[in-house]
Amino acid sequence: MEAAIAVVALLFVLFVAAGVYAAAKAVGAAKRGVDRTVAQARRTVEDTTLRARQLAQPGAAGELAELRIKLRTSMRATQDTLHAAAPDDSSLGETLGLFERLSTHGRELDDELKRLEREPDKSRVAAALPDLRERTERVVHSADSLRWAAQDRARRFADDDLAALSSDIQLEAGALRHWDSTPGTTDAAGSGSTGGAQRSPDPGQARQAEARTAPAGEPAGTPDRTPDRERQPEEPPALTARDPRQRTGFPWEKAGKTRRPESTA
Hints:
With 265 residues, the protein is mainly α. It has helices at residues 2-56, 60-85, 93-117, 122-176, 183-193, 203-213, 228-231. The chain is flat. Mean pLDDT is 75; it is low at 185-199, 214-223, 237-241, 250-254 and 261-265. This is Secreted protein. Residues 176-265 are annotated as: Disordered.
């Protein structure tokens, strides 16, 4: 009895622990979703504010806003490209590491540009702009290089895969059209293309025809040794002197059993 109670209590504890774990996972996922939504909304507001400031405030303030927009746009585009291609290409692991190092410099530069936006001394801002502009160009160029290299790599892989797929499809299409390579079709196509030209007879077929037409008792292909005078048509015998060698067979005799004329040799 006590063992059953212990088992039930253990199961109850396990169910409670599983419920707490599932609730914590759900809360964490919801919190991450909220954080992403808040961060995206904050970025959208900041980008809109920077674009408005770039157009509304000429001079150093407008240039600072332009540099920040350029930096943020390039870094965000490169990050999205690399993270999208990394699951399918393991070689981008080192590239992601380089981008993380570049992101550190990008964040530091963006923070410095943001501090200068609140700087009341305009001369100080104007003096710092050339160096900030050069640093921004270097970071943006590096980010663009990584993004373009990843895009070219993905495009090359897609082209190679498409070329291999096209080759396989051509082979499969040829296998499906197997009748195009049969000898009968080729001969028929060749005879049709020559405008009905006659072909030379096949020696094997000629020998078979000769064997079918050879008289009984003689092997196929034996030359005719009958003298020319015997192969010429003879004159009909006279009514009073019927040649016994020209006797016709009786009706019950089979065809081909007629006796041949005896040789005079």
